[in-house]
UniProtKB/TrEMBL annotation:
This is Phosphomannomutase. Its cofactor is Mg(2+). Residues 449-526 form the Alpha-D-phosphohexomutase C-terminal domain. The lineage of its organism: Bacteria, Bacillati, Actinomycetota, Actinomycetes, Micrococcales. Pfam families: PGM_PMM_I, PGM_PMM_II, PGM_PMM_III, PGM_PMM_IV. Residues 48-185, 230-312, 327-432 form the Alpha-D-phosphohexomutase alpha/beta/alpha domain. The keyword Secreted does not apply. Keywords: Isomerase, Magnesium, Metal-binding, Phosphoprotein. GO terms for molecular function: magnesium ion binding; phosphopentomutase activity.
Length: 555
């Protein structure tokens, strides 16, 4: 059955590259190659699921993969959805430097144009935040960004935003299911029969407006940052961030940053890293080596589509002399910065697996705090939001401009903060100690299990549901909550374990990668700031060691 479907796909595939790849796989499967047969079976076992992250998967032929056929079907389905919603819909399409991104973006734009939707292509490969910005800036009905963000090199994706009342945020239910249904309808027609049209190409004004709006949030109250700020090394990790980062920093008056030369240009093969994710071990090794050689005082990194930000600071006790701050540390620094600027007005928000510390900061400043479901699509939609973040290096510091995580605007704010601290003879590391002195130390850690067999993830979650731990690292588990149940708000496939020392462990499948992720949070208010931080870190490390054996269990 799978071979018949594969042969039919190959006969109709308009892309000669994926057609040849599939024909070779079919031939190998027919010759008895078990691996080839398994690939055909998986590629044709169903459609690549369209959800609240749009589409994301490995580039290869078949309906369960990312390819031009799937992209055109998705675009035809989204076009039907938009035409049903309004009489004159429009869509902005952007793309990054991954393999196939430009081809997918142009195919999508032509399908939109042929379906009666005004299609506006961005002028060249650009960061994801520029596409999110363009949806609002141009008053578009929707936006599509062709990217797989920080996924492995073999992947690509199709991310959807909605305009109008959605204000350029990512799609959420029920829109995702409604679009998915339209895609199934559109897929009943061969893509070779789709009418195609000529899209518009946006002028440079869209990008220039994003640069100006983002630079504006990097200008401190006491004047422009000067050359006395910290020396910075920056890497875009082979992604598309460099051009826009340079333009924004120049417009804001910052001195130039030193760029990791091996990672400066877009390269979808990501040759210097195992995974193009700044959270992964080794991803910032080149940046750290360069920073040490240059005598830099700060490392800043974007992921390949520049919607995430990583920060590293000097630390003599770390193996390379540098310590990458956790997403929660950066999130709390930016949150404290935003809370002081808000002057008692507005809302701070974070996803449920992010540090509880932001709630403490909000309360101390008379601000409302909202804890959202996982995923930035929920953080960005909080009414009255002045700042939001998620621990996976995603920060929204300018919700009036962009309604999605934005690694470039976050870079500008963290650099502004670092520059102001530098002028006072301080640093981000010392600011974290100041935060611990005022609110207590909030430390976090993460344990992840990457799988090749996706069935392992529900098996591991099932084992933890059936037999939750009763103690972890010497502390009793006083509550084991399944957040998928109605009594906990049906938040999602998340398990939460609360310990009697105030620590918290949360377990969930990754929404974008083949991983099971464990989030660990601990706090301490005893002793001076450094002692508080040390105690909280020791608890996180101890709990992480206790958690690892649990991840080897299966039901």
């Amino acid at each position: 059955m799978s071979l018949d479907a594969a042969r039919a796909w190959a006969a109709a595939d308009p892309d000669p590259e994926t057609r040849a790849e599939l024909e070779a796989t079919i031939a190998a499967a027919e010759a008895g190659d078990e691996a080839a047969m398994a690939e055909v079976t998986d590629a044709f076992r169903g459609r690549l699921q369209f959800g609240t992250a749009g589409l994301r998967g490995r580039i290869a032929p078949g309906p369960n993969r990312m390819n031009t056929v799937v992209v055109q079907q998705a675009s035809a389905g989204l076009a039907r959805y938009l035409v049903d919603r309004e009489p004159y819909p429009s869509v902005v399409i952007g793309w990054d430097g991954r393999r196939g991104s430009e081809r997918f973006a142009r195919d999508a734009a032509e399908v939109f144009a042929g379906a009666g939707v005004r299609a506006i292509l961005l002028p060249r490969l650009l960061p994801t935040p520029v596409t999110a910005f363009a949806v609002r800036h141009l008053g578009a009905s929707a936006g599509v960004m062709v990217t797989a963000s920080h996924n492995p090199p073999a992947d690509n994706g199709y991310k959807v935003y909605l305009g109008g009342a959605d204000e350029g945020s990512q799609i959420v239910p029920p829109a995702d299911a409604e679009i998915a249904a339209r895609i199934v309808e559109a897929a009943a027609v061969p893509v070779t029969e789709y009418p195609r049209g000529e899209p518009e190409v946006a002028g440079e004004g869209v990008w220039e407006s994003y640069v100006a709006a983002t630079a504006a949030i990097g200008q401190p109250d006491q004047g422009m940052p000067g050359a006395g700020g910290p020396r910075v090394v920056y890497t875009p990790l082979h992604g598309v961030g460099l051009e826009t980062v340079r333009a924004v920093l120049d417009a804001a008056g910052f001195p130039p940053v030193t760029v990791v030369p091996e990672q400066a240009e877009p390269d979808g093969a990501f040759p210097t890293v195992d995974f193009p994710n700044p959270e992964e071990p080794g991803a910032l090794d080149l940046a750290m080596a360069l920073a040490t050689a240059e005598g830099a005082e700060l490392i800043l990194a974007n992921d390949p589509d520049a919607d995430r930000l990583a920060v590293a600071v000097p630390d003599a006790s770390a193996p390379a002399g540098w310590r990458m701050l956790t997403g929660n540390e950066v999130g709390l620094l930016l949150g404290w910065d935003a809370a002081r600027a808000a002057r008692g007005h507005g809302v701070l928000a974070a996803s449920i697996v992010s540090s509880p510390g932001l709630g403490v900061i909000a309360e101390a400043h008379g601000l409302e705090f909202v804890q959202t479901l996982t995923g930035f699509k929920w953080v960005s939609r909080v009414p009255g939001l002045v700042y939001g973040y998620e621990e996976a290096l995603g920060y929204l510091v300018n919700p009036g401009t962009v309604r999605d995580k934005d690694g470039i605007s976050a870079l500008v704010r963290i650099l502004t903060l670092a520059s102001e601290l530098h002028e006072r003879g301080s640093s981000l590391a010392e600011e974290l100690l100041a935060l611990a002195a005022e609110f207590g130390a909030f430390e976090s850690g993460q344990v992840s299990v990457r799988v090749t067999d996706l069935a392992r993830i529900p098996a591991l979650m099932g084992a933890l549901r059936q037999a939750p731990p009763t103690e972890l690292a010497g502390a009793a588990v006083v509550a084991a909550d399944d957040l998928a149940l109605p009594e906990h708000g049906e938040i999602g496939d998340i398990l939460r374990f609360t310990l009697d020392d105030g620590s918290r462990v949360m377990v969930r499948p990754s929404g974008t990668e083949p991983k099971l992720k464990v989030y660990i949070d601990a706090t301490s208010t005893d002793g001076p700031p450094a002692a508080r931080v040390r105690a909280a870190r020791e608890r996180v490390a101890a709990i992480a060691e206790a958690v690892r054996p649990l991840l080897a269990r299966e039901s």
